[in-house]
Amino acid sequence: MQGSVSILNVSPEAAAMIASGGRISTMDGTAGEIYAKSLAAGQEKNEKLIGKVLSSGHTSVLEHCYVNLSFENVSVLAEQFLIEFRLASFTVKSRRYVDFSKAGYVSPAFADDAQRVVFENTAASLFRTYDALEAAGIPKEDARFVLPYCFCSNFFCSMNARELVHVMNELTYGRGSRIPELRALGESLFAQCERQLPFLAVRKPEAYRQSDAFCPRQVQLLASKAPVTVLAAPQDAEGLICGAYQLARGYVPQPLTEPEQTALLKSLLAQPRKRELEQASYTLQFGGLSLAALTHLTRHRMQALCAPELLKTARYDRYVLPESVRQAGMEEQYREAFRLADETAAQLRTAGAGEDVLSYLLLSGQTVPVLTTMNAGELYVFFRLRCCNRAQWEIRDAACAALAALRKTSPLLFSLYGPTCFVSGKCPEGKMACGQQAEIRKKFSK
Questions:
Q1: Contact in structure between 358 and 349 (CB atoms under 8 Å)
Q2: pLDDT digits (tens, 9 = 90+) for 5-37
Q3: How far is Cα 426 from Cα 46, in angstroms, rounded to an integer?
Q4: Spatial separation of the C-alpha atoms in residues 138 and 101, rounded to whole Å
């Protein structure tokens, strides 16, 4: 199966809107008057102006145009690549709730039929294991760990035109160019832009050309034994945030007592605008997240995420083993899935298969170390969502471990952080609430 991408919607009068952005800095008149002039100028003149503005490097005008995309039956490998673009929005078909036994998978470009047969036999076996796990009563969110990265994903994606140009070039000429599926998606987007939005079909092969990065010393990358390690943190986060709070209200920042800091932080957390929290940033290393959990983490946009090249670090003997698998007596079949994928990968590698094939054989349950930096504002959102009982169990465990580590680093601040029912006293889940709010609040108060 081969996936596709389609441009579903574009901002009305996109060329006129972008051209208005190019005219406003040098033309008299109000914003509305300039937009009216751009409409009257016509498509040809607007596109000519856009080309002139872009050639001078002022690409920010493209951000006035918004594009909606649909990705149909692309691999999860492609999904993971795309959701790393932080200036885009994504809504993905959930593997926690949807049955993927009939989802199908994307076939990579094989060098010969022998490689294809080996790969397809293994993919079929892994899907049968997925079916067997589900039949044994194992939740879909746990059964998915044995699915290979070739299985199909469907999602919506929206971004401004400037980010679209970046994505298209990254797919076609940058990091995605090594994988035929990704390169084809990039070429498809370029072709659609050339027909519908020619001023966006800006190809930059030289700017995005890949080269091997210099590494002074090659070492074996290993997952940390600690679930979460705080690598960097402000010395006095509470003082930094409280000082910013005072400054933003016109006061000279001055030291506060601990009770005063606590009262101020509580007041700040209760407000819709919490910009002061962004003054404090933390760097966390997760010792080993499954590829599925990495997807959950990546969806948080306001962070600097650094995940390693998967083929260099995702070993088949490092994977999550859900408790539901043990309880169902399916541990042997579950472990066999990873052993089979490892054996097939070795066989294909010996036969000359490269990254463009082997990447599709990674399993969702394999673990990799991950590094991220988030400010205290994004961490507030992260913990509210991911410490909740409704969150997927692996990312919830990782979030709780991260919160425990941060409470040792900045205890006053992070003693106020936790799931929504803890920080606000109310559960937002409605009928899907866990019904354990009192126990949860007690747990996170300790």
A1: yes
A2: 999 999 999 999 999 999 998 899 999 999 999
A3: 51
A4: 14
